[in-house]
Structure formats: C-alpha cells, structure tokens
C-alpha cells in the first residue's frame, strides 16, 4: 500500500501524537507497577460462558518465565464490581441477556522476583512493546486521513494478531450514529450503519444482547465513563442479538468475499472497547481464525487498545479540523459571492441557493421571500431539476400551507426525512416543477430584530438518506449570512428606488416647468357655466358615438368637466371647480405627443366610462367612491406614456424598468405614480374634501384599476372574471367589486374597437405607428422585433383578428352579460371583426401588399369591404 508523506504536517502531527500518547505510555507504566503490587489485574470479557481463571496457555506461558500468577478475583476495581452487581441483578426475563464478568489477563508480581533469564525475556518484551508503540506513532503520523489510517491500522492489527477480519466501528459526530466504512484495507462501497451511537454504548455497558436500538426505547444511554484503571472490555460476537450480528456479518462478508471465503453464520469474533482520555469511544471488531485463537488474539491486542484509541481520536480531531477549515473556506467564499451581488436580488438569490447546496450537499435549494402585503412566500428564483440554468419565474405559496409555510409561521427549523408521509408537505410545487422531493431541510431566515425575511428549503440530501444534525448546524449559521445579505440588498434596492424616484421627479418638474399652466387658462374654465354634454354633439351620450370627433384641446377639458357634473361627482364630493380645472389641465399636459397613447385616447376612454357609469346596472353594482375612482383612473391611466411597451422598457433597462421591474407592470405603475404626483401638486388635489379613509380607498381603487390596463394582468384574471359572470355578480362580494372595476376599465381602454369600422381603422393606424416606431428602435439596438412591431412583416388585419378573438371579444361579451344595456358594443365589435376579415380576403385576392399602413387610408378598399358586408347581410336575410 502506498503511503503519502506530507513533510510539514507529518512533523507537526508526530509531535502532537507523541505529546498525546505520552499519557498513554505513562499510564501503561503506572498500570504495570500497580499490577506488580496487586493481584488479579486483568480484563473484562462479556462471554456466554464463565471461566474460573487464566487460560491454560496463559498459565503455561507465564510459568515458563518464572512469573507468579495471582489468583483470579483477588483485587477488582470498584467500578467493575458495581457494574458486575448491576448486571447480575438484571432480571432474566427483561429481554436483556448479559454475560458475566470474567478476567482474562493474568497479572504478575514485581520483576524483582524474576530470575536472570526471566529478566532477559522481560527486557525483550519491553523492547518489543516499544517497537510496536513507535510503529503505531509512525502509522498515525504518516496517515492523517481517517480512511487511509484505518486501512493501514487494520492491516497492522491483523499482522500482529492474526485475525481474519479487522474493522473499526466509529461514532459519527454529524448524526450520532455507529457505522463502519473500512474493513481490512477495503473501503466499503456503502458504509454499514449499525444503528444509533447508544447501541454501541449499551453494548459495552450491558453486553452483546443489548446491541439493538429498539431495546433502548427513549432511554438516554451515555458512553462508558473513562478511567485509567478500567481493564480492557471485550464483547463476544456470539452474544450479540440478531440485529447487531447481522450488521457484523455484513462487515465481515465484505472482506471474506474478496478473499474467496464465504461468510460464516457463526462468526467467532470480538468487539473491543476503544476509549481515550479525550473521551473518544469506538469499537474494534476482530473476526478470529477460530475459537482456539480467540484468547491469544485478545491478549496480543489488549496492551495497545488505549494507544489505538488515542491515535484514532487524534486522526478524528485532525479530520474535524480539516472539515472546519473547509467549511470556513466555503463560508468565506460564500460571503464573498453573496455580498458581491447585493445590487441584484435575483442574482443574490441564485448565489445563496448555489452556496447552500454546496454546504450541505443537496440536490436543489429554493429561497422563499416574504410578501407581507399578500401573506405569501415567493420564490423569485426556483431551480428546476437541479440545473443552475433553468429557473421558473415565480412560485407563490400561502403562509398557511406546506413545510415552508409552517417554518415561516413557527420560526423553527424542520428536518423531514420522508416528505410524502409528512402532514405539512405541499405536493403542488412538485406537480408544477416535475421535481420529486424525498427529504427536506427547511429553515427560517430572520433579520437582526428577529423578523422573518424568508425561508430556505433544501431538498434531497446527496449520498445519505436524510439531512443530518450537522447539516442543521450549518444551516443555522448560513441563515445568518442570508439574513444579512438579503436585508442589505433590500436596503440597497430602497436607496436605488429613492434615487430613481428623485430622478423621475426632477424630470417631471422639468416637464411641468416647460408646460406650466397659465392663470388665464384656469380662468377660462371657471368663469363660464359648465356646458351640457349634448352641447358638444347630440349623440354624445350614445355608445356608438366617436368622442374624438368633438375637437381637441380645450374642448376635451370642457367635456370632461361636463361629465364630472352630470355623473354627480362635483356636487356629491364637493369638488372645487378651480381645483378640478387645474387637475384636468395638468393631466392633459402629462400626456406625451405620441401617435396613440395620448390625451385623445385618455378622453375617449373616459367618455366610454362615463357612458358605463350612467347605466343603472353600474350604479347599482358599484359604490359612489368606486365610480369616482373608475372615472378618474380612466382619464389618468396612460399619463406620461412613452409610446413603447413594458417588454421594451425591461429589455432596454430604462430608468422606469429599474424602478418598477421588481413589481411588474412597469408603465402602469408609472402612470399611477404620475397621477399621485399631480394630486400632490398645489391646487390639484380634487379629493381634498374627502375624509382620510375615503381618500385612501379612492387611491387604492385608482391603483388597482390602472394596473388592470396591463393586458398581461388582465389575462391572469380572466378565469376569475369568467367565474364571476357565470355565477352572477354579487354586490356583497369585495372580490366581485374589484373584478368588475378591472373589467370595465379594460373595456373602456378597448372601446375604440366598438365604434364604426372607419374609426377602428384610424385607431389601428395610430397603434401600429407606435409599434413600428418601437420596432425600428429595436432594430437599431440589434434586436429582432416581434412581428406586430416590424413594419416589414406585420399584417394588420391578421393581427387585429387575433387580438379581437383573444382579448376584445371576450371582454365585451363578459360586459354585455353583466350589463345588458351595453350589448350593442359587443355586436359592434363582431361587425368590425367581419370587416377586418373581409379586408384581409380582398388584399389576398387582389394581390395587394399586406405590409405597411397605406391600405388603411384607402377609401376604395373601405368601400369594397362595406359593400361585401352589406351583400352578405342581404343574402342571410
């Protein structure tokens, strides 16, 4: 076997081994002197038979050298007498069969009684013992690795005793279990687990029949007390119970098979106690050649048990120091990786999960952060099938469900070895991800104040059946690093958001200073009476009316004042006319000059909301504050729109995206923020007459309604809206109030599709002008835009048909089923869909280019479309 030498560590290790083993050497000398003065110093052996004295071989060997054999039982240590009385007092019927105490090694009187020839032999024995002692030191010094050390030491013990099989039964500090990982010079493919550590302790205290974890129950068994006067303790393998003997046979078979010797069911073996001054406890398993050599092999190894135990403890301590050093290095590397990513929460979470897996050897790790607002735990990054490059966008779990929720609620760590048999396991995560969870170590992450920040969940321990207590200790320490890093990351995020808000506020101030409101502008809308809505157009109160047709600029402001008045908001909520006029002017100036998302669009959306709120069904379904919130939200829902989509903002990493990306719906959140900014301006707060509670309710409603204009958010709510429509609207349900406001907002936002086809085409042209402008920017950035954003690939009729089928038609269908008075809007959209379909057919038939926007302004094509629709209707009649 090759021996690896490490010069520096070997020297230091040799010094440590010599220093620690000096006590063993002095102890051996003291024992020898005491044995010469006393009679009967020997060993303790648990056996199935009782011997009355020294074996014949021992007696003959000793008499040959002229030594006097003391009678057995002359002097016995007090601890052994007490233990013997305890064992002999054990009832025979309790299932524990304890062997009696027998002394095996004879003691000798002083060497002064020896003749010269005997003294010569004694000196040879001392030299032999010294040589063995030095050999043990060399083995320990040259093999500080526990595995290698066991292999070499097993080989040495086998060569000295002649035993057939030699192995150590060690105690794992991680899980407090007894196991064997090396047998002879073979490293077992899988360590043999002999049960809890108390099994080994009980074995040496009560005998072989106690070697079963089932028999210990809940009794706490401590390791045998170390005493320098305690003689060697041997346990015969024949006395082991069936469970422990089966483990011993597995250990022996692993070597016997390799040597061509079949395992013997009636193994003749010994388990010797290894105990050092430092308290290290282990067992030395020796399988003898046969029954006749058992006593001889025990006698040979007995003087060296203390030395072997001490050296094993030294190597174990070195291994522990190495492990702690590696762990410290991992923690240092982890801290460096984690704290270097404080600027990005997603990157921070990825680093935390990666380092956590490395520390405890787990397949996957998930970090759930606490969402206090919704009482949920959110996994912003969740590994899929253990690969570091596949992540789900988001997984949400209620605080009341699952092991993660229980840990979050109680604040206590949970180590679950079999999750599918645990009552708190939440299998839906496995169902969603396709991952199969076997065991879980879940621990809370708390800040310095003890407040919950999140919960980390480690799944599937690698190489073991479950996570160990050592893993729990590592997790506890790791949680502190996680809490510090996450808290600092959140603080850093708040500082960044404050900086960006300051930047956006400065931008708004610049915009406001360049577009300031002149006093005469406000005066113009306050000195005259508010006109009636029908004064702008006779059909102003009809759903088919196109509100953009009344003009621009001041006309929209006057019409908005008229709608506020007719809906009763001015009188009911005591809205001051000057404040309302200033507010509307600031909202108008807050819109940018983009093709579609401009003030005209906002006014059209507000007009459709005005028509909805006038219906009796909406007045009965929503409260006054909800109707006011809905109308104001419609006018403000696209303030400061940049003419680009949320996806473009995120892709371009604009200041808006950096400010709102963590919350989603970037532009919609910005629109709400701008609305609040206008309300906070001097003489612009139209809600100043509301109570604090009313004011908070209105702001909350406006926020939710504006966020509902994000089509992605609407699609996430479609199933809930559909269920509300099918079950029927319940005015007592807060959920139905929220869903109805969101639905009406979406319908108002898409209301241009419910007008005539000419208006629908004109609005589509404005929409695609914005889309194509964004597509051109993406091309300049080196990106490939979506088809509807690419002027070279987009086919407007085709895209319009897809959008109507997916979004517009279902929305107006739901609205018309709740509000029968607006059924005409749904029919208008159905007609527009037919027109777009006919237009697409004509373009194909005539071979006209379907790209670009020119054909949308072609009056001849429009006439052909309307003619075909009329002919089709005539045929159906």
Automatic annotation (TrEMBL):
Pfam families xrefs: GAF (PF01590), PDEase_I (PF00233)
Family recorded in the similarity comment: Belongs to the cyclic nucleotide phosphodiesterase family.
Name of protein: Phosphodiesterase
The organism of origin for this protein: Parascaris univalens (Nematode worm)
Binding positions for Zn(2+) 2 per the UniProt entry: 638
Enzyme Commission number, as recorded: 3.1.4.-
UniProt keyword annotations, A-Z: cGMP, Hydrolase, Metal-binding
Domain named PDEase: residues: 515-843
PROSITE patterns assigned: PDEASE_I_1, PDEASE_I_2
Listed Gene3D superfamilies: 3'5'-cyclic nucleotide phosphodiesterase, catalytic domain (1.10.1300.10), 3.30.450.40
Reactions catalysed, as given in the entry: a nucleoside 3',5'-cyclic phosphate + H2O = a nucleoside 5'-phosphate + H(+)
Classification lineage: Eukaryota, Metazoa, Ecdysozoa, Nematoda, Chromadorea
GO MF assignments: 3',5'-cyclic-nucleotide phosphodiesterase activity; metal ion binding
Cofactor binding, per record: Binds 2 divalent metal cations per subunit. Site 1 may preferentially bind zinc ions, while site 2 has a preference for magnesium and/or manganese ions.
Catalytic residues of the enzyme: 597
Binding site for Zn(2+) 1: 601, 637-638, 749
GO BP terms, alphabetized: chemosensory behavior; chemotaxis; determination of adult lifespan; negative regulation of cGMP-mediated signaling; phototransduction; positive regulation of gene expression; response to alkaline pH; response to hydrogen peroxide
PANTHER family, A to Z: CYCLIC NUCLEOTIDE PHOSPHODIESTERASE (PTHR11347)
Binding site for AMP: 597-601, 638, 749, 800
